[in-house]
Amino acid sequence: xxxxxxxxxxxxxxxxxxxxxxxxxxxxxxxxxxxxxxxxxxxxxxxxxxxxxxxxxxxxxxxxxxxxxxxxxxxxxxxxxxxxxxxxxxxxxxxxxxxxxxxxxxxxxxxxxxxxxxxxxxxxxxxxxxxxxxxxxxxxxxxxxxxxxxxxxxxxxxxxxxxxxxxxxxxxxxxxxxxxxxxxxxxxxxxxxxxxxxxxxxxxxxxxxxxxxxxxxxxxxxxxxxxxxxxxxxxxxxxxxxxxxxxxxxxxxxxxxxxxxxxxxxxxxxxxxxxxxxxxxxxxxxxxxxxxxxxxxxxxxxxxxxxxxxxxxxxxxxxxxxxxxxxxxxxxxxxxxxxxxxxxxxxxxxxxxxxxxxxxxxxxxxxxxxxxxxxxxxxxxxxxxxxxxxxxxxxxxxxxxxxxxxxxxxxxxxxxxxxxxxxxxxxxxxxxx
Length: 433
Ligand code: 9WN
Fold this sequence. Notes:
433 residues, three-stranded antiparallel beta sheet, two-stranded antiparallel sheet
């Protein structure tokens, strides 16, 4: 195992800033040098939240540049391409062909999929923590209408199950690409061999057979002209993910709280919160956790993953449900048997793999979300465990993309932006810039 002498808070903070400065393009932060040379949606949003207590303007710029990629439909794409490295990541702009779609932005090329709608929560987080109040208020007024359009898009074009939840139409939309939560839905797809070649990457990433299915889903949707009717009636992958919807609900809560600042009506977002909560409980709750629902196969995922805890982000989730979730989270199925928080898949599952992306490793962003959820329910002990365990990981292994949950060794890319940015948030009370 590669490890290093544990660094103190001040040194860790300096290292985090140097990663973020190195990954800064002038208007956005790329996830990591090399493998990810573009702006990714939830990566940028985590960076904005990590910067919120430190630099209001830069946190705002991160969101503004991401939303420059928003489509006229309201969809916020999962990648906004940096023109200099256009084909430096596969699939690049020549595969997505966003510019052929009349609703895509003219100034930038983007992907045609989205990622979890964390943006309103991030805007709220910036507004809540900003030292520079005027900049924060101006930011809320500027971004609010764009986020309202994003939320309309989810409610109208993504409620593919008709039950009030938003469906993801590709594993990439979850941000937790290789999670076993999508296995049965993916396995039901016809086998394909696509003619594209991806660049060789680390062995922690998915095998080619899985990537072929990912590409088949991209090409089918693209060739429909990114048509919402195709998604509803024909697209073979549609899943209601509890993490995506838990985040959506938390963002609706944020929009309701920010409404007076933006001069908007909070009513529709309050109603959306109630609607999504009821739908989560009715459609995804099963055997003590929330599970992903495969709309095409008509079943809930048998595997319990980190995504199962996403609805804990809801401040209004009934206490007995929260208690059940925390019991599972703290048990030997997750935190109880791991040395470091929080494995991305339950340890006892057959699909658990401590080294493969999203099938076992611990991630700083999901730790941070669960810590936020624990704080929303006043679970002070859990907040401390998640914060200190996450800091232990980055102190020992650096700002890696993810980590082995048993020995804490780093995996995937180095100098990973969200690991650095969210560390800054965790350190905000103890260090100065
Ligand atoms: C596909 C950028 C992204 C993250 C995802 C992570 C990985 C991409 C990939 O990298 O996904 O979007 O190439 O595997 O799974 O969470 O946003 O860091």
